[in-house]
From TrEMBL:
<keyword id="KW-0325">Glycoprotein</keyword>
<feature type="domain" description="EF-hand">
    <location>
        <begin position="155"/>
        <end position="190"/>
    </location>
</feature>
<feature type="domain" description="PPIase FKBP-type">
    <location>
        <begin position="63"/>
        <end position="155"/>
    </location>
</feature>
<keyword id="KW-0732">Signal</keyword>
<dbReference type="Pfam" id="PF00254">
    <property type="entry name" value="FKBP_C"/>
</dbReference>
<keyword id="KW-0256">Endoplasmic reticulum</keyword>
<keyword id="KW-0479">Metal-binding</keyword>
<dbReference type="GO" id="GO:0003755">
    <property type="term" value="F:peptidyl-prolyl cis-trans isomerase activity"/>
</dbReference>
<dbReference type="InterPro" id="IPR002048">
    <property type="entry name" value="EF_hand_dom"/>
</dbReference>
<dbReference type="InterPro" id="IPR018247">
    <property type="entry name" value="EF_Hand_1_Ca_BS"/>
</dbReference>
<feature type="signal peptide">
    <location>
        <begin position="1"/>
        <end position="35"/>
    </location>
</feature>
<dbReference type="InterPro" id="IPR001179">
    <property type="entry name" value="PPIase_FKBP_dom"/>
</dbReference>
<keyword id="KW-0106">Calcium</keyword>
<dbReference type="GO" id="GO:0005783">
    <property type="term" value="C:endoplasmic reticulum"/>
</dbReference>
<keyword id="KW-0697">Rotamase</keyword>
<dbReference type="Pfam" id="PF13499">
    <property type="entry name" value="EF-hand_7"/>
</dbReference>
<dbReference type="InterPro" id="IPR046357">
    <property type="entry name" value="PPIase_dom_sf"/>
</dbReference>
Length: 232
């Protein structure tokens, strides 16, 4: 459906559907690379600031969790192919900036943006859907896209220092199965959603399978901080 156009086909779209927000990227890592047509180096995202609030803090950076509404248009004829306000009962979209949960052009366009700011951005094909286009979203090949964006919130992302330290109870700069297990229990209790008894163990196993790269039974600060927006 056209409603999915600005977002990649990524497991990260399940954010908020039962997996704790801070641990979601541990279990569900970045989306596969998006095929780009043309030469990205020769093309840039054009940004026009429509509204800038007097208080502009904090400014968005890679790894932050953003909440925004955006409409998408084809530059060729001005037709609208996407409107976030018609999706998910009109709620603004949540996504982590700069990690591939949206097309590359939007990741670039929403850097250094502050809460309350509005932008109109023009994204070349090489930073959108390239030579292939996206037929399901009614985006033709080599299409230049225009987005009107309103940013509501800039929060620390799931891979921030604060998130790591919250899980790392003993402060040894690595996450044990016990620490993550306890954190899962706390998050499950906090959101109050009903889950199958096996859900806890399945998520815990998946987290270590996908993140404990050296197989030592711990998730190190380096293994955790894949977004690299803070130094742990």
């Amino acid at each position: 459906a056209a409603g999915t156009v600005p977002r990649r086909r990524s497991p990260a779209r399940v954010m908020g559907r039962g997996l704790p927000l801070l641990l979601l990227p541990l279990a569900l890592l970045a989306a596969p690379a998006w095929a780009e047509g043309g030469t990205a180096a020769a093309e840039e995202v054009q940004i026009e600031v429509l509204h800038l609030p007097e208080a502009c803090s904090p400014k968005s950076k890679k790894g932050d969790l953003l909440n925004a509404h955006y409409d998408g248009f084809l530059a060729s004829d001005g037709s609208k192919f996407y409107c976030s306000r018609t999706q998910n009962e009109g709620h603004p979209k949540w996504f982590v900036l700069g990690v591939g949960q949206v097309i590359k052009g939007l990741d670039i366009a929403m850097m250094n943006m502050c809460p309350g700011e509005k932008r109109k951005v023009t994204i070349p094909p090489s930073l959108a859907y390239g030579q292939q286009g996206y037929a399901q979203g009614k985006i033709p090949p080599n299409a230049t896209l225009i987005f009107e964006i309103e940013l509501y919130a800039v929060n620390k992302g799931p891979r921030s220092v604060e998130a790591f330290n919250q899980i790392d109870k003993d402060g040894d700069k690595k996450l044990s199965e016990l620490e993550i297990s306890q954190y899962l229990k706390e998050e499950f209790a906090r959101d109050g959603k009903k889950r199958h008894p096996s859900a806890h163990d399945e998520i815990l196993t998946d987290i270590f399978k996908k993140n404990d790269h050296d197989g030592d039974g711990f998730i190190s600060a380096k293994e955790y901080n894949v977004y690299q927006h803070d130094e742990l």
